[in-house]
Every structure is written in structure tokens, then in C-alpha cells.
């Protein structure tokens, strides 16, 4: 069985060749225009960066190396006794563009479990945080501190060839992904279950199996399966989203993966991005408290209008790129439909009913370019049903997941020798001079 590193070693030369050819033959080929609206509108729509593992189509949604979510659900290995995609098989696909065998997936699970323990000083650091510090702040700080052990940074200081960067990058990325569950679970325990012992990592379990166990939900098979799916699906969403782009930008300075990903986590912590799943739950619960759970479409409609007229966004709806219902939302809904306990859950039923009404209300409201749900419309509510009720923690789970894609690209950026990012900015006066 070929290891992950050996597999990457085989794939990299052809990608390097592809980039060389693009540079040599098409460096001056025009593939889009930049309009003033792009410059003042958050660069929306500008094709401006390379991102290998996934591409987002506005209507179809995400494809990972060409595979849609249903494709991945068909071909990617699951955990023994499970049905859902796991983090390891998704990571392998993202990194190599290949579907791993069962044996390769298990080998990667084992490697991650073996590397999963936190250094003692990071445990101490995290334990010293006040429980009132937002869990995302704790996660970002913990990840940054892990850079103490960065192999890339140490090798760079000693002096290595550019062609070797990616191997150290890969080692750091695997170490970081391996350590995220212990770090994230420790934060959960400290904040919400102080004084309870954190179980040791089980070398025979997959990454998310261990994560759920360390959180204290190991005996809930359905929650474990849900988290496997959730973490695989949130793994990558091309490069332009705020967290992925942040990690790409910081990494382009040759910062190590720990610093790059910690920066990404602080972008993920914003309410318009990763914090939306906590916001959705807060909003759905407020709706439930005000109008009850056995409600009519008309009542939901009124509640939606109240939110909009109050100048707030409807959390879980809209997207910077997508123009249809998010296939990740659909996949999570299908998970709900396949589990009777979720079908009976009042909060899940309310999410579903909201979905039946919200797109029309948002269309009538007429502002958002995408009146359909994104993945966050449902993701947190399922966690809530299964008893993981501390919604300030939800973005941390997203943060464990997004490492798969963001760190994959760091490896590719170094393998392809991509340069430091440096787009051009303009003042309004300078822009007006260009227009004249
Ligand atoms: N409810 C009400 N208004 C909305 C809206 C929503 N769900 N989504 C967009 N709009 C408004 C938006 O505020 C903007 O208004 P102004 O012109 O007054 O500023 C207008 O519609 C045009 O926005 P857009 O071009 O359709 O969206 P953007 O690309 O600017 O923003 C989102 C995209 C996701 C930030 C935005 O749709 C939003 O705020 N959604 C609610 C929060 C959310 O669910 N975020 C999670 C996104 C998720 F995919 C993730 O990152 N995890």
C-alpha cells in the first residue's frame, strides 16, 4: 500500500508540468475583466487565485477534484461499521486527487491517531484560558502555539531547497490535523464540562471517532456518523472564502501551516462566515420560543419578515458564490431524513419548514442574490438535537473540518512554488483617475 506522501510524490510532477505549460503558453491569455463593482464589492467574482482541491459552481455546488458530494458518498471509504464519508478519505482525495483504498484510509487514521497528542505546554496554555473566552479564540491561539513544533519552520531556518518545501509542509499539516481533535475537545471540556477527564486517543479509531469520544459523545453512534459527514463536507469550499483565502494569503509569505491556519480560524470566527451555524441555531430557537414548534408556514413567514424588517440577515441563507440550495445542506437534510429520531425532532422540523418558506420571502425581499439555504441552515440544529447544545462551540467543529482543505492547498502552494500574494489596491481617487 502506498502512503500518502508516496502518492503525492507521484502526482506532483504532472501538476508542476501543467503549471509550467500554463505559464509558458498562456501567461497573457485574458480570462475575465475587473469592473469597479468587483473592486468595491469584496472582489466578488474575480478569478484571482489557484486552488487545486475543489471548485465551486454557482448552481451545482462544490466538486472535490471533479467529484460531487453524491459521488464522494459513493466512492470514499467510511469508518468500519459506518456509512458516512470520513475525514481521512476526504483528506486523501483533497491532497492527491485520488480515491484512497480501504487500507490507505485505515493507515492514515492510524497515523493521525498516533500523532494526535498535544504537547504539554499547549495543554497548559489552553487550561489557563478563562471559560468565558470564546472557544474560537481559544482554538486559534492553541493552533498558533503549536507552531512551536513546526518542522517546516525549523527546516527553513536551517536552509532547504524550494523543491523540498512541500514535504515539510505536508508533515506539519498532518501533525496539525492529527492534533486538532485533542485541542478542540480539550477546549470543549474546559469550557462546558470542567473537571471531567479527557479520554486518551484510541489508535484504532478514525479522527472523528476519536474527536466525538473526547467530546464525551462516543457512545452516540448517530452523532459520530453525523460529525463524520459534517467534517468531510465542510473540508473544502474552494479558495475564495474568507478562511481558506486567509490561510492561503498568510501561507504565501512562507509562514508555517500552524500560523497560516490559525489566521484562517479567526476569519472563520466572523458571523457572516463560520459563526453562522451558531447564529442559525440562536435564531431558530428564538423563533421556536416565540411562535412554538408546531407552526404554520404563515407564522414562519411573519417571523422571517420580522427579522428582515429589523435590519438583520436571515442566517443560513444566501452565499457569496452559490445561487441554488447548497448541496451540503441537501446532504445533511438527507441524513436527517434517514434518521427517525431527527425526523421527530421539533427543531429539525422547524428548520425544514423554514426552508419551505424562506426562499420565497427572501425573493420578495429582493436583496440577496441567493435566496436559498447554505450548509449552516441545518448543521448546528442537528448537533443541538443530539445533545451537543453549546452553540458557541459549533464553529470550532467547522474549524476542525476546514483544516482539511486549507492545509491541502498549503502543501500544493509549496509544491507548485506559488509566489507571495500581492494584489493591487486603489484609493477612490486613484480609481476615478483610471475611469477617466
Ligand atoms: N438575509 C437578508 N439579507 C441578505 C441575506 C440574508 N440571508 N443574504 C444577503 N443579504 C443581503 C446582503 O446583506 C446585501 O445587502 P446590502 O446590499 O444592504 O448590503 C444584499 O443582500 C446582497 O448580498 P449578496 O450579494 O446576496 O450576498 P454577499 O455575497 O454579500 O454575502 C453572505 C453572502 C453569506 C455573507 C450573506 O448571504 C449573508 O449574510 N447570509 C447570512 C449569514 C450566513 O448564512 N452566512 C454563512 C455563509 C456560509 F456559507 C458560510 O460561510 N459558512
Could you characterize what this model shows?
This protein is mainly alpha-helical. The chain has a domain of 192 residues: Citrate Synthase, domain 1 (Orthogonal Bundle), CATH 1.10.580.10. Helix content is 60%, strand content 2%. β1 and β2 form a beta hairpin. α4 packs parallel to α11, α14 crosses α19 and α16 packs parallel to α19. The chain is globular, with a radius of gyration of 22 Å. The longest helix is centred in the middle third of the chain and has 28 residues. The model has no long low-confidence stretch (mean pLDDT 96). It contains 21 helices and two strands. The chain has a two-stranded antiparallel ribbon with strand order 1-2. Bound molecules: alpha-fluoro-amidocarboxymethyldethia coenzyme a complex. Alpha-fluoro-amidocarboxymethyldethia coenzyme a complex binds next to loops.
Show unreliable segments: none
Structural class by helix and strand composition: mainly alpha
In total, how many beta strands?
2
Say which molecules are bound, naming each kind only once.
alpha-fluoro-amidocarboxymethyldethia coenzyme a complex
Shape: globular
- Under CATH at level 1, the class of the domain at 102-273 and 396-415 stands as Mainly Alpha
Strand order of the largest sheet: 1-2
CATH homologous superfamily of the domain at 102-273 and 396-415? Citrate Synthase, domain 1
Order of helices and strands: HHEEHHHHHHHHHHHHHHHHHHH
Output the CATH topology of the domain at 102-273 and 396-415.
Answer: Citrate Synthase, domain 1
**N-end to C-end Cα span:** 62 Å
User: If you average the pLDDT, what whole number results?
Assistant: 96
CATH architecture of the domain at 102-273 and 396-415: Orthogonal Bundle
Largest sheet: 2 strands, antiparallel
The amount of beta strand, in percent, is: under 5%
Estimate the helix proportion, in percent.
55-70%
Radius of gyration, in Å, reads 22 Å
Q: How large is the count of helical segments?
A: 21
